[in-house]
Amino acid sequence: MDKLKTWVLAFSAIIFLSSSFQALAEKNETSKTRADKPMYFLYGDPKPGTKFKQKLYESNVPFDLRYREMSSTLQARVKDAYGGLKDSETPPFPTEGMQAIYRPLYKANRALDDEGDVLAIAMVDAAGKVESVSMYKSPTDNVASMVNYILVNTKFDPATCDGTPCKMEFLFETRLEVKPAWTR
User: What phi and psi values does residue 58 have, to the nearest 5 degrees?
Assistant: First the structure.
C-alpha cells in the first residue's frame, strides 16, 4: 500500500510539474507574441449608450507624440522603416504626431467605406512641407486622392542630416477597414 501511495504521489508531482512548465512556456510565448504586436491605439468616440471608445487604429508608436518627444526605443521603431539611417540622421515626422494623419483619414474614410492596404511615400522638404506624394498601393482612386490630400496638408518636422534640416521621404503605410455604422 505504501508503494502505491508513493507511486501516486510521484506521478501527481510529475503531472503537476509538467503542467506548470507547459503553462510557463505558453506564458513566455504569449509575451513574445505581444511584443511584436502594436501597443498603441487611436480611439474614436464611444458607441451611443456606452462609455467605451472604439479602437480606430493600432501602431507600434504613440499617435500623439512628436518624434523628438519619443524615447530612444520608440525613435528606433520609426527609424527601422528607413533601413540605414545614421545615428546623426532623423526622419521627417508629423509635427502633431501620427494622429495628424490618422484622424482626418478616419473621418474621410467614413464617407468612402473603402477597405484595403495603403502605401504612400511623401517627399518632405527641409522646411517640413510635403513636395509630392507617390502612391504605391491604394484600394481605390478615391482613397489615393484622400491620402495625397491629407499628407500634403500635414505639417512635418523636417528630417535632419548631421543636425541640419534636409529633404527626405516619409513612409506612410496602413490598412483601412470599414467600421460599424454606429461609428459614423
Answer: -120, 150
